[in-house]
Amino acid sequence: MKNFARAFALTMTCALALPAFAQEKPVAGEVKEGSLKGKTLTFVSYGGIYQDGQVAALQDFVTKSGVTLLNDGPTEIAKLKAQVDAGNVTWDVVDTADLPPYVHCGTLFQKLDLSKLDVSKIPPNQVGECSVPAMNYGVVLMYKNETYKDNPPKNWVDFFDTEKFPGSRAIDGSGDPTGGLIEQAFKAAGGDPKAMTADDIEKGIQKLRDLGPDTIYWKTGAESQQLAESGEADMVMMWTGRAMTAVKNGAQYTPVWQDWLVVMDQMTIPVGVKDTDAAYALLNAYLGARSQEILTEKTSYTPINLDAKPKVDDVTAAFLTSTPERIAQGYQQNIPFWVKNFDLAAEKWNALLSGN
Amino acid sequence: MTATSDLTTGAERPAFLSRFRPRGAVWLAAPAVLVLVVALAYPLAIVVVRSFTDPVPGIDNYIWFFQSAVNRTVLQRTFVVAAWVTLVSLICAYPYAYAMTIVGKNVRLVLILCVLVPFWLSGVVRTLAWVILLQDSGVINSFLRGLGLSPVKLIRTPPGVIIGMTQVLLPFMILPIYSVMKGIDTRLLQAARSLGAKPWRAFLQIYVPLSLPGVYAGAIIVFILSLGFYITPALLGGPRSILLSSLVQNQVLSLLNWGRGGAMGVVLLVATFVLLAIAAPLMRQKHTSTRREA
């Protein structure tokens, strides 16, 4: 009996282990020749230069695998929800903002099987249960040289100090609340962001409200860029890509890198896609070093493969966030906290943005 | 006026046309009705149903709406801004439309083009042009500074939003007023003058009442369009000039609370209907009484 049990166990182990051995471990950026011939994948992102860059980064994957790649966009979680609710999901791989894959993990986005992806080259702490990063960027504080001259702000605490640093402020009011900014506001109000509770969100928001009625809440990245290029605001909270473009266009502003807020777009596979394995193959190809180099060269966003060595000009290089120095200065928001309190934070944020 | 009476008597209608009239007239509206049912009535019904059923059946979404101070403030603000835009548009449009009726053919063509050209540009482009004009470091304030005057705060204030929205909506006010004004028989004014009325009195008592149907039509169109404005207040306004559509957008697109978004839409719709129901008898009364006088 004992022998039988042992033999049985051994057989089962072999039976289970065999397919695992037979299946090759995926390598980021690689895809089998002709493996997706006749198949179609729809990739959804935010359009413009960004999506063009992503498609260029996937060109090698398309050529090798033989897949037909369709593009759609811009990403709207509401549209995705409609597809999932109707049981007819036509978006196979979706690029989303920072938090949605955490908020809707398992309901709109599939939990990822990491044995089908090579995530070894992704910067630390960026792989979520339902997402891998699509690229990195940052939110920086840009100050106007002419206003502050020899006494510039050095961090977000200075941003919230209107006595020592008078002048108008411009803040990202384009959508969901930026958790990192509220944490910094809470810190400026004397709190400890690491010990933040749901009740503290209001304290952080109040600190933002205290900046006064002249505070500008910009609605689009283009608007933030315009604010800097025209010298309209003295301190502007900006996405690094827009900050870089503004500087290239002659804006006399300087970035403050201390506690720049780490942000990323996410790559996800929605629940209910028709060919999950094909979607995984696309993701895995996207994560490759060469793909990420192409992405950065085309879009100037920071690559999310540590081996990527993109060739870019000096200004672009100055705004990439993947150097060891930048990684050390970066500030990562408390993702689980903001996911848990998403509705509350959004409600308070909307009240702030509607003048209440 | 004369044109309509000719049509209603049907005196000049050819016999073969009147034979086809009853059925033909109904079917002519079929394509439009189909589009309205598919693109308006059905989605609207879904929105209403969702507002009472999503996430749980009941009136929770409405309770939430009226309990939130933010929603109440913004709803009130939306109507106030819409009223201002309607008023400012009317002040700009009335003399403009009048000018269109009295100038020569070529000048009228230029005036019509001035109204229509903005229609061919996207609202976003026009709004961004206003940003450049109105902002603190913008054209208007640079000009004021150049003259040694103190700059004025225009952008991110309610007046900035009202200016931008008025410009976008002005054609919707000018065109209905103009179409009524050009049908007004100016001999009526001459008749009034010959009976001893001063020019301004003839204008106010004869011309203005006759032009009121156009004013009402324009005012209703502009008011209702203003209630749903989104991009212009978002770009030209600060937090104190956000309108309800922005809050709806937040609920629907970023928070995925479709029930709440639906409830907000229904509240806005019902409030609009109530307001129109109050205004409609007033308009009709004035209109008929002036007619009797005329």
TrEMBL record, chain B:
Domain ABC transmembrane type-1: 75-279
A single GO BP: transmembrane transport
Pfam families the UniProt entry points to: BPD_transp_1 (PF00528)
CC per GO annotation: plasma membrane
Residue spans crossing the bilayer: 25-49, 74-97, 109-133, 161-181, 202-231, 263-283
Subcellular localization, as worded in the UniProt entry: Cell membrane
InterPro entries in the record: MetI-like (IPR000515), MetI-like_sf (IPR035906)
Main location as per UniProt: membrane
Topology with respect to the bilayer: Multi-pass membrane protein
Keywords annotated in UniProt: Cell membrane, Membrane, Transmembrane, Transmembrane helix, Transport
Stored PANTHER family: ABC TRANSPORTER PERMEASE PROTEIN (PTHR42929:SF5), INNER MEMBRANE ABC TRANSPORTER PERMEASE PROTEIN YDCU-RELATED-RELATED (PTHR42929)
Family as reported in the entry's similarity comment: Belongs to the binding-protein-dependent transport system permease family. CysTW subfamily.
Stated name of the protein: ABC transporter permease subunit
Organism: Shinella kummerowiae
Lineage, highest ranks first: Bacteria, Pseudomonadati, Pseudomonadota, Alphaproteobacteria, Hyphomicrobiales
